[in-house]
User: Fold this.
Amino acid sequence: MADNKKALEVLSQALKLEREGREFYLKAAEETLSDKGRAMFLSLAEDEKMHAEMVLRQLHALEGGGSYVLLPLLGVRAIDLEAKLFPPARADVEKKVGLNPNELDALHIALENEMKSYDLYRAAAKTTKDEAGKRLYEWLTQAELIHFNLLMNNYEALVSLGGWV
Assistant:
């Protein structure tokens, strides 16, 4: 019962992060001047929507004492659950802003948000005993890592090359 309560707490927090992430990416897409940046933010918003739907399905499955449901097509590759992510320091961002500070700020915030989700899913994957739950969290950890790397590549490209990738 305690495991179920903890799982419901993690999934509720995950749902909140995914929904907030989607809203952030939609807003960033509206405000980004670059077509490449806009497309990236819209794609990330769609991913967050899909993640939220997956999390919501699990939340409903666990309510009332149920268990995780193994979702189809979750190809989970090996992932290092000990690895931590680090976004660029805010001070570094401020030193290098000479482009459009709003875009760099958006990327920095996005990196921090992805890191929160990554850390939540990583911790849940390490502690969840249910195999379907563990696979879900590992898959979500991988997805957040992909998002983080995409955002970091664009951040570095904006700072050093002056454009989106």
In short: The helical segments are 2-31, 35-62, 90-96, 101-127, 131-160. The chain has one domain: 2-160.
